Amino acid sequence: MYGGGADVPNYLWQSIIATLCCCAPLGIPAIVFASRVDAFKASGDTTAAEEASNKAKMWSLAAFGVSILFWIAIFCTGAFTGEAPA
User: Fold this and answer.
1) What is the pLDDT of residues 9-19, one digit of tens each?
2) Left (φ > 0), alpha (ψ -120 to 50) or beta: where does 78 sit?
C-alpha cells in the first residue's frame, strides 16, 4: 500500500487527541496500535506496520465519530436549553 520504503503514518497524535477529547474507550486501542507502528517499522516488518497503522486510524476515526454522534444527540434533545426531552 505504501510501497517502496514510503513512510507509514503512526496516527499517534490523532489517537491521543481522540482519547483525551472524544471517546476514551475507543481511543485507547488507537494509542496501542499507533505505538506499535514505529516498532514494526524499526524491525523491518512493513506489512505489520501498515496493518497497525490502519487499525490506529480506524480506532481514531471511530472515537471521533462516536463523539460527533454524541454531541449531535445532545444538541437534538435540547439538553442545552434546560428543557426535558419530550
Assistant:
1) 999 999 999 99
2) left
